[in-house]
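Hi there, hope your week has been kind to you so far. Thanks so much in advance, here it is:
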Amino acid sequence: MTTLHISTNKADLDVPLIHQFISEQSTWAIGMPLPVLERAIDNSLCFGAYLDGRQIGFARVVTDCATFANLVDVFVLPEFRGRGYSKQLMETVLAHPDLQGLRRFTLATGDAHGLYEKFGFTPPSRPTTLMERYFPNIYAN
C-alpha cells in the first residue's frame, strides 16, 4: 500500500489541479479565477496530500497563527475517497505547530459534518454572535 505524504511546501502544490477541482467540481467556489486561487494560496497555510508524487488532496487554512484559523478548500479527488485520506489530511492540519493554542478554529461545510465532528468541530456554541457577509455566486460571472 502506498503511503500518503502531506506537505505544507507550496512549491509542491499542483496549482492547475487544485484550480480545476475548486473552480469546476467544488460546491463552494465554482468559477473561481486562477489569479484569485493563487492569491489565496500565497496568503494561507496550505496542505497538499500526495500519493507517489501525485497530488490527490488539498486543504487551506487562513490564520493569524496565534488566535484564529478558518479551514477552507478541503478536498480529496473523487477517485481516492473512501480510503481514509481525508482523515489523515485533517490529522496533519490539526497537528501543525502554527495551529496550536488557537482560541477559535472555524470551517463551513455542506456535506462533511461527520468527518469534522470526529476532530472536535461542532455547530457554533453561540450562533447568535456570529455574522457574515456571504456571496456564494461571486465567481459566476
Observations:
- The two ends are 43 Å apart (CA to CA).
- The mean pLDDT is 96.
- The chain has one domain: 5-129.
